[in-house]
């Protein structure tokens, strides 16, 4: 099984639209949406959820009001402002404390220093992950809860489950919609992949972000290709990206012109390939063929 990961230096470059287009062209594959901070691949794939599981990325403190003696040790020890007064627990205890689950960083200090052991350390439910079926094949994806942070643990889980399904169903390709940027979620998205496609755009920020992403994939020794989306909005920048990529030994395999079909396809909950058979679709198909050749 080969693994293709599509990433970008920042959000909004068209990464997910291109990933969805590849899904409509591929055969015998599993799809994974690892952009869990801003998951939107499901908007096009319209998946039918077959399995739903809670995701815990860490632990949080919970004060048992009936056992709290209101001493304030936890309040004094907390460096995140997560503990506050909560009023009387009963007739004999005139003040207790409570933990704000959004502010709690799960450091465990309050648990360790509570003199009466009135604080529990429970697994926090940070979101859900899903195994679904789409019109093209199986898909593994997730949704983080409000104000929840993605440490990369959820991304790793999504990739692991997608690989398991691919092995069980004897699929020969795993297509991953990776996280944007260069942080922990991106590292979790690309580690061990066979090929990374970086989708960028012809702007100064696009060039800067592309350079950072290419440094990251180079450090991991992963073969990298580049796609320039909206390539015709700034031909000078497009040429500069090509030259700089070539100087670093990275090939630009696609130059996709700006086309409203991308947006219209999303509105119709369809991939670009399903929506139009014009020149723009042919360019994406050509790029996909080159990727399959590069994967061997």
TrEMBL record:
Q: Which GO terms describe its molecular function?
A: iron-sulfur cluster binding; metal ion binding
Q: Which PANTHER family match?
A: 4FE-4S CLUSTER CONTAINING PARA FAMILY ATPASE PROTEIN (PTHR43534:SF1), MIND SUPERFAMILY P-LOOP ATPASE CONTAINING AN INSERTED FERREDOXIN DOMAIN (PTHR43534)
Task: State the superkingdom.
Answer: Bacteria
Q: Does the keyword Secreted apply?
A: no
- Coiled-coil residues are none
Keyword Lyase among record annotations: no
Where do the 4Fe-4S ferredoxin-type domain residues begin and end? 59-88, 95-124
Ranked from the top, the taxonomy reads: Bacteria, Pseudomonadati, Planctomycetota, Phycisphaerae, Sedimentisphaerales
Q: Which Gene3D superfamilies match?
A: 3.30.70.20, P-loop containing nucleotide triphosphate hydrolases
Tell me the protein's name. NADH dehydrogenase subunit I
UniProt-listed CDD domains: SIMIBI_bact_arch (cd03110)
Keywords, sorted A to Z: Iron, Iron-sulfur, Metal-binding
Q: Which Pfam families match?
A: CbiA (PF01656), Fer4 (PF00037)
Q: Which organism is it from?
A: Limihaloglobus sulfuriphilus
